[in-house]
Amino acid sequence: MASNAGEEESTVIAIDSDRNSLHAVKWAVEHLLKKNASCTLIHVRTKTLYSHDFEVIPKQGRLPTEEELHQFFLPFRGFCARKGIVAKELVLHDIDVSNALTDYIIDNSISNIVVGASRWNALIRKFKDADVATSLVRSVPETCTVHVISKGKVQNIRPAGHSQNISNALSKSLKGIKGSFQSEDLNRYNIKEIEVATNYFDNALKIGEGGYGPVFKGVLDHTEVAIKALKPDISQGERQFQQEVNVLSTIKHPNMVQLLGACPEYGCLVYEYIENGSLEDRLFQKDNTPTIPWKVRFKIASEIATGLLFLHQTKPEPVVHRDLKPANILLDRNYASKITDVGLARLVPPSVANKTTQYHKTTAAGTFCYIDPEYQQTGLLGVKSDIYSLGVMLLQIITGKPPMGVAHLVEEAIDKGKLQEVLDPNVTDWPLEETLSYARLALKCCEMRKRDRPDLRSVILPELNRLRNL
Question: Which residues form a coiled coil (predicted)?
Answer without folding.
Answer: none
